[in-house]
Automatic annotation (TrEMBL):
GO terms for biological process: antibiotic catabolic process. It comes from the Bacteria. The lineage of its organism: Bacteria, Pseudomonadati, Pseudomonadota, Gammaproteobacteria, Alteromonadales. It comes from Shewanella cyperi. This is MBL fold metallo-hydrolase. Pfam families: Lactamase_B (PF00753). Residues 11-210 form the Metallo-beta-lactamase domain. Belongs to the metallo-beta-lactamase superfamily. Class-B beta-lactamase family.
C-alpha cells in the first residue's frame, strides 16, 4: 500500500509516493521546491530525508529537473532518467536554451502570481540510473517508466500499474479548460506516437504536472492530436516568427 501526495510546487504539481519504508519523487521539481519538499517529508510525514530513495527526472526543464541534484545530495536518493544519449542542454545552443527556459519558468511564476525565487540549476544531469522504455523503476517495481518523447527527446511517463494512474509530466497541459500539447514541442511526430502510446496504455487516471488529474475518459486525445503542431514549435521559431511579424506584418507570421 502507498499514498500519493500532491504538493503545490513553485509552478507545478509535485507527486510524492509514500511507502512504509521508502519514498519516491515522481519528478525533480524546481530549485525553489527543495526546501518545501524537505519540510513536507520531515514535518508532515515525520520521516527522515534518507527515506527518499529515488527521484525521477522526466525531462530537463527547470520545474522537472531543477531540484533533483540538491535533493539527492540532501537525502542520498538516486536519480533516474530516460536512457537517451547525450545531454539535453549541450553546446552553445543548449546553454542559451537553458537560460531561456529558466526565464520562461520565471515568467510562468509571475503569471501565477508566485513570488520570485532562485531557479538556477545545473544544465547537465548526472543520473545514477538510466531507464529504458517499458522498464520498472528500481526499488519500486509496481511503477513502469515509458518513453513519451515530443516535448523533448527524453520525456518519461510513469505508470502505477496496480491503480492505473499515469503521471505524464508535460506530455499534456490543461489551459482554459482544454487539453493541449505543451510548449515547446521539438518532435511533433514523436509526440503523436506518445499520445497513441497513452491511448494504448489506457490508464484509469492521467496526472499532469500542469493542470490537475483526470480520468482518461475526460481527455479527448483525438482532439489533442488534431490540434497538435505538425512542425516543431520551439523558442527560436517563436522568436523568428515574432521578428518577421514585427518587420513584415501579420502575413509573415
Amino acid at each position: 500500500m502507498f499514498t500519493l501526495h500532491r504538493l503545490q510546487g513553485h509552478i507545478q504539481t509535485i507527486y510524492l509516493a509514500e511507502y512504509a519504508d521508502r519514498l519516491l519523487l515522481l519528478d525533480g521539481c524546481c530549485r525553489a521546491d527543495v526546501g518545501p519538499v524537505c519540510d513536507f517529508i520531515r514535518q508532515q510525514l515525520k520521516r527522515p530525508l534518507t527515506d527518499l530513495h529515488l527521484i525521477v527526472v522526466t525531462h530537463m526543464h527547470p520545474d522537472h529537473a531543477g531540484g533533483a541534484h540538491k535533493l539527492a545530495r540532501l537525502s542520498g536518493a538516486l536519480i533516474a532518467a530516460a536512457d537517451v544519449p547525450g545531454q539535453w542542454y549541450r553546446g552553445l545552443d543548449g546553454f542559451m536554451m537553458h537560460l531561456s527556459d529558466i526565464l520562461l519558468a520565471k515568467w510562468v511564476a509571475s503569471r501565477m502570481k508566485r513570488p520570485q525565487r532562485w531557479l538556477w540549476y545545473p544544465r547537465f544531469l548526472r543520473p545514477d540510473l538510466l531507464l529504458k522504455d517499458d522498464e520498472p523503476l528500481p526499488c519500486f517495481p509496481e511503477w513502469q517508466a515509458y518513453h513519451c518523447q515530443g516535448h523533448t527527446d527524453r520525456d518519461l511517463a510513469l505508470l502505477h500499474r496496480p491503480s492505473g494512474e499515469l503521471y505524464v509530466a508535460d506530455l499534456l497541459v490543461r489551459v482554459r479548460g482544454r487539453f493541449i500539447a505543451p510548449f515547446p514541442l521539438f518532435y511533433p511526430n514523436r509526440y503523436r506516437s506518445s499520445l497513441l502510446k497513452v491511448q494504448t496504455l489506457a490508464p484509469s487516471r492521467v496526472l499532469l504536472a500542469h493542470g490537475g488529474e483526470y480520468p482518461l475518459s475526460e481527455i479527448n486525445l483525438e482532439e489533442v492530436l488534431a490540434s497538435a503542431p505538425t512542425v516543431p514549435m520551439t523558442h527560436w521559431r517563436s522568436v523568428k516568427a515574432k521578428v518577421r511579424q514585427a518587420l513584415f506584418g501579420k502575413d509573415a507570421a
